[in-house]
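Quick log. Single chain, no ligands specified.
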Amino acid sequence: MTSKRAKIINIVYISLVILFFYLPILSLIIFSFNDGASLTRWTGFSMRWYKKLFESDKILDSVKVSISIALLATLISTVIGTLAAIAVARRKRKFRNAILFLNSIPIVNPEIVTAIGLLLFLTMFIEPSFNAMLIAHISFCVPYVFLTVYPKVRSLDPSLTEAAMDLGANPWKALRHAVLPQIKGSILAGAAIAFTMSFDDFVISYFTGGSYENISVYLYNLPRGANPSINALSTIIIIVITIVVVINYIKSSKQYKKENRI
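-> predicted structure:
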């Protein structure tokens, strides 16, 4: 009886937690199809806000800036972070610990402090602009990629690279064929984190972007009040993210079944 009661309490508790997290998102999606401008009163189904979304040059420009910055920052930071993790993993323990300590500082540092620091540093060489925002995004994405890839590299058998080179492979081929395939999952995870951090960033983008606005900065500069077009944009982003998560889950499940079968 006690076990059954505990099970019911667990189910109720989990349901309340799920509602707490997902009810606002569900409400946002529903009211993106609302005919009226109200975010609390339903007046009928309509696609008018999606139409207005694609007619708004400012919103589309901010989306383009967000996606462009996120993709470029992800690509560059993933390459830098991965190569750095591979290089550091082979060094002596004291050096590795020092690098790990330095790498953790940008992650735990308050974002406003990082933003001001980057602004002061970058303005010595370049005005706040698209390029300045890109450099700033790369700088704070690299530590996340490094931290994601490094543990996997450390777990690899170092003799694999040596064996590949003994068989005639040069360092680049040994890296490409012996190391990268084994850390592919960690690299993709690091890239996903970098993309999310870049796409979602506001403070650093606000300080370094100048006249260029990503979605977060655009939303901040909007007049306060309801804007159902943003609900439509948010709904599209949620749908895209959900599709990506489902695809990754299916791939992971297939890979897990394949490994267990072996």
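The chain has twelve helices and no strands.
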